[in-house]
Specification:
alpha+beta; elongated; seven-stranded antiparallel beta sheet; 204 residues
Length: 204
């Protein structure tokens, strides 16, 4: 009888140890995923401004990370948001630069299981064709990283005798999250990644 009582008392301890081990493994999985889920190149590779009829238009090429974790998370229902921060500042010699314009281009990426295609969407209401679809993740990311003739300034915003600088920074972060354990292991509510700033003097 004592032997059975002792065995019964130990069962909750074993269950507790098992739960602790499972929790530790899940925590390791989350930490590893947070470090690896967005692994890959994230940078503004080129950018310039062209002037047409007094409107300053931005052209840029951004490289976004691509890997199997991103592909799997998208297919599990995750939505990703891509931001391009644009700052135009007036250069000041003995003080901090003064921001003249500050914009953010926002785009989304999701996977459509019915059509088996990756769907991108521009969140700028001025875009006439905001949604497009692609057969591969690589094609979708290339499109997301392409900015052509995006208006950022008009000539009256700039003083003729001042020097100006344009700076870009690309970012990618979690959007809509599906309620699956697999996705939860890879993405947290505040997880995101940003590139370094890409800057140059504005030529007029």
């Amino acid at each position: 009888m004592e032997s059975r009582g002792t065995h019964t008392a130990r069962r909750p301890i074993s269950a507790l140890l098992g739960s602790l081990m499972l929790g530790a493994l899940l925590a390791l999985g989350v930490n590893a995923a947070r470090a690896d889920a967005l692994d890959g190149v994230l940078e503004v590779r080129s950018a310039y401004v062209s002037i047409e009829n007094g409107v300053f238009q931005l052209f840029a090429r951004v490289a976004y990370p691509v890997n199997d974790d991103i592909r799997a998370a998208l297919k599990d229902g995750l939505k990703l948001t891509f931001d391009l921060d644009v700052v135009v500042s007036r250069e000041r010699r003995f003080w901090l630069d003064d921001d003249v314009a500050n914009y953010q281009l926002k785009r989304e990426l999701m996977y459509n299981a019915v059509s088996d295609r990756y769907v991108t969407r521009d969140l700028d209401p001025r875009i006439s064709d905001p949604q497009r679809s692609y057969a591969t993740l690589e094609e979708a990311l290339e499109s997301l990283g392409t900015v052509d003739a995006w208006p950022i300034l008009v000539a009256p915003q700039l003083s003729p005798n001042r020097q100006y600088r344009v700076s870009l920074r690309a970012g990618v972060r979690r959007g809509q999250l599906a309620d699956t354990l697999r996705v939860l292991l890879f993405w947290t509510d505040d997880w995101h990644r940003e590139s370094e700033w890409f800057s140059w003097s504005l030529q007029r």
